[in-house]
């Protein structure tokens, strides 16, 4: 309705539907003298198209024609007493005032307001329900013809046969359930064993990884230590070589200085040898 441009609340829609139903009931109950136009309700074709189909839908969906006819039959089936006051007391007030009192209304009053339509619909339903209760009381008070007890309990033979037929099925279902339960328990035990085995393997792999990491760290430390030791040995050898070279250079320098200070030492060795002789 909002897409079509109507702004109605759910409560207003319900009241409008009740009003249309009440007007439809009035139009069905009102006698019309003109045969060409039997009913003068504005939305009668649409309401009749909707409510007239309910008679073919089952006992729960009752049409307005059937409801109006049954109300009229129940009102006619009430025994007329010589005392009109008692007869008026038997008839429900809503049925006389709401349902059947609308027969003399004019055509313009067919489309009543929302409040009047709701009250008339509720009054007609209340009148029919009260008529039904009164008829039930009269039926219970009257003697039963033919000696047939309508309130006799139903025999429970079919229920017993159904229960006997259901016993094997329930037994089979219980056996299947027990078997499924045992299989499920076995699977759970197996899964728990596999989980523990996987956890043990995971711990073993973790221990192996830790051992390998420790071994790698030890090897790395050993390599670093050997490398440092070799570097220190190389430095020591270089220092020793430098010290030996420094000593040799010092000796050569001292010898050259002594030769410069003593010129006789620079004579020929043979002459020195002859002089010695």
Briefly say what this structure is:
It contains 8 helices and no strands. It has helices at 10-29, 44-51, 64-77, 84-90, 93-99, 114-141, 157-261, 269-276. The model is unreliable at 58-64, 74-126 and 142-158 (pLDDT under 50).
Report on this model:
Pfam families: Myb_DNA-bind_4. This is Myb/SANT-like DNA-binding domain-containing protein. InterPro entries: Myb_DNA-bind_4. It comes from Oryzias latipes (Japanese rice fish). The structure is a single chain. The chain has 277 residues and is mainly alpha-helical. It folds into two domains: 133 residues, no CATH class; 61 residues. Helices cover 71% and strands 0% of the residues. The protein has eight helices and no strands. α1 packs across α6 and α3 crosses α6. The chain starts with 9 loop residues before the first helix and ends with a helix. About 28% of the residues have low confidence.
């Amino acid at each position: 309705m909002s897409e079509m441009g109507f702004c109605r609340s759910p409560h207003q829609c319900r009241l409008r539907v009740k009003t249309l139903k009440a007007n439809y009931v009035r139009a069905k109950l009102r006698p019309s003298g003109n045969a060409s136009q039997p009913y003068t309700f504005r939305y009668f074709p649409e309401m009749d198209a909707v409510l007239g189909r309910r008679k073919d839908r089952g006992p729960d969906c009752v049409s307005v024609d059937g409801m109006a006819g049954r109300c009229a039959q129940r009102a006619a089936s009430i025994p007329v007493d010589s005392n009109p006051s008692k007869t008026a007391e038997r008839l429900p007030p809503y049925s006389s005032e709401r349902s059947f009192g609308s027969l003399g209304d004019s055509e313009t009053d067919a489309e009543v307001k929302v409040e009047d339509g709701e009250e008339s619909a509720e009054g007609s339903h209340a009148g029919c329900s009260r008529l039904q209760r009164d008829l039930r009381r009269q039926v219970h008070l009257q003697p039963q013809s033919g000696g047939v007890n309508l309130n006799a309990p139903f025999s429970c033979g079919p229920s017993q046969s159904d229960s006997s037929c259901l016993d094997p099925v329930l037994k089979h279902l219980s056996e299947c359930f027990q078997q499924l339960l045992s299989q499920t328990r076995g699977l759970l035990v197996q899964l728990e064993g596999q989980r523990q085995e996987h956890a043990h393997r995971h711990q073993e792999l973790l221990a192996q990884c830790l051992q390998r990491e420790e071994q790698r760290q030890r090897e790395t430390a050993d390599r670093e230590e050997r490398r440092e030791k070799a570097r220190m040995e190389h430095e020591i050898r270089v220092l020793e070589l430098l010290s030996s070279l420094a000593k040799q250079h010092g000796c050569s320098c001292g010898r050259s200085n002594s030769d410069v200070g003593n010129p006789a030492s620079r004579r020929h060795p043979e002459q020195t040898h002859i002089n010695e002789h």
